[in-house]
Specification:
The complex is a heterodimer of chains A (591) and B (174). Chain A is built from 4 helices and 36 strands. Chain A has 591 residues and is mostly beta strands. Chain A has a single domain, classed as Quinoprotein alcohol dehydrogenase-like superfamily (Methanol Dehydrogenase, Chain A), CATH 2.140.10. Chain B is mainly α. In chain B, helix 1 packs across helix 5 and helix 3 packs across helix 5. The chains are: A mainly beta (591), B mainly alpha (174).
Amino acid sequence: MRKLSPAMALMTPLLMAGALTPVRAADMTFERALNAISKEPQNWLLYYGNYQGYRFSPLGEINTDNVKNLKPVFAVALGGLQSGGRYAFGNLEGTPIVEDGMMYVTDGWGSVYAIDVSSGTKGDIKWKFDPGIDRAWAGDVACCGVNNRGVALWKDRVISIALDGRMFAVNKATGEKVWERKIADPALGETITMAPLVVRDLAIVGPAGGEFGIRGFIDATDLNTGQQAWRTYTIPGTGEPGNDTWKDGADRWKHGGGSVWETATYDPQTDTIYQGIGNAGADWDPQYRPGDNKWAASVLALNPADGKIKWGFQYTPNDPFDFDEISEHPIIDAKVNGKERKLVVHAARNGFFYALDRTNGAFVGGKQYVDKLNWTTGLDPETGLPANYDPKSGVQVYSPGTHGMRGEPLATVCPSHFGAKNWEPTAYNPTLNTLYIPSIEGCDGIETVAQKDFVDQGGTVKPRDRFSGGAFKMTGRLYGSLKAIDPTTGDVKAAVRLDFPNYAGALATAGNLVFLGQADGIFAAYDAKTLNKVWSFSVGTGINAPAISYSVNGKQYIAVLAGSRQSPFVMQSDPSVKYSSTTSMLFVFGL
Amino acid sequence: MDVRFALRFSLALALIAATIASVRAQNVQSDTQNAEAARVIAHGKDIFKTKATCQFCHKWDASGDQGYGGNALSLRATRLTPAQVAETVKCGRPGTGMPYHDQFAYTDKRCYGVTREQLGKDMPPEPNAFLNSDEIDAVVKYLFATDVGRGPSTYEDCVAFWGTETRQCEPMKQ
């Protein structure tokens, strides 16, 4: 073995710590992913920063004392603004991945950009991989925008997805495609918008399409072969546990929804992934699908090796609101009532914060976190089910007038059907044991329309047709809030009211800051303890994406994608954003 | 040649030439009008498809839809007149998800005699894009040329809307 010179011996740990930018990044391994935060604080290697879903950067150079000096240091224009299907442009909702001075981001149409950010003064696009989507075909069955939430790294490849349901393995150094695999099928109303979760050699994703009559699934690709490793349907089939919760007698589970469109968290301790599951189809006609409709509006704990379901917990049985619970399920070890618990927690779309025992799915505690909630009177302290859930009833009648029923189609629900929190992820500061929830506050209307059957079940609804049993109806302006809660009690420690409903996720840092973007283009930092706004910068266009933090040559940066325009329904009657335009930009900030 | 005959012949020729010129002019005028009408309809389609993204709620064939576009009505089955459709595009439908598209609607009483303040929570949503009166005229002409009063859309209708560069119409091909 060649002996290192004293100078090289000194340099090696610095290189390993990323203090200097290596010429070529090492292969991404499971080991590196497991220790993403502790051993590589300078990088942002995973979608949530770590497998546990924290969106927490251990970097503290930028902190509450000096954040007032934070300024934009460079920006990069991206693409993906083309129209397609029902949409006039693509949005940016992605989380950048940063590895040793190289950043990997996606635009709404799934193009991947490898950007050299090592200079700290400029972002150089080294390559761009365009998946070449049939935009009309995919965009016509995207329920809620043209979105792509980011990539994953594996070995010397970038793993990405496209709205049209394909997954790609791309050479990390050159941007050349190695293989692609068709996972979801727009012919069935399936699309993919989520960033893949890579555990060992498997990439795990699922399809959106809960408004188009899909049957949801979680799918693993063997990255060594580009072939399917397993697929687990989120809506159980005949003979599978839970299929008996579809009591319509007409096999409507076959179009039962249960979409999957946000990345799962992974617990190395129990070797389990926790995947949030979307709404039942048809959304707003619960009488179409009597029964609890498992596993819609649920979380599933699965074995990542074979996709076997370990347990499930359903938040809103027979969901009549469109309260899909696809969003993140952070993993926290904490003392609850004097006892050490292994928790998986969730700020649910239905307005409650939940803590579950992640070894068995048992309900540990729950509490309302949204300002206004009218659809139930609380949670059963034993089961965690809605207090007015009736196990004997096929069709749940939650608080009357909060969801449409046939014959009484109009209702007003709080939180709105968009949820108290939609997909936009929380951030968790483990030092402060505080979870930051970017929420959507307010109410909206539901108008139920009796759902017609699919053609394969004797009806008239064709694949790719909308399948939602009615619609929502805005009844006033929504607003937002950022709430700091104790995840062991659900108690709100601090809260700040925001002018706009949140559609971008949060970032927490060791500098005791929380970063959050808003629909009016304000990108702000809040004191992690008080939630006082301590810094902001206007990017001049809507922000729909969560920020990340990384460092190069020892200097910390904050990066966020900016480019969105909310739908008219969301921004109803808000004069301040009605002339806003979208764009497609990466902004990077530093001291 | 007889002078009178020559004169008559010349006059006849002149008359024929004038007639041909006149017909040609009429044809040119008619062609111009047709081209202008086609241009307006194509412009209307672009607004329906992309600029105002009317199809997000009403579906590409204007047959109406549900879900994240609201319970949007079928324009194929509508009994509204062109003027009524134009007014709906301009002013939206208070109390529903149909947006207004006249930038100054409800700043005065041009729409249904009411203002934003008077409508309160029934104020229609903001649009994807504001449209001027020529654009509203174009989108109405497009709808009445293509969709209003028609039966279920066909594969040919689909190709006319989306083109052949997409798989979009394949499911209708059978």
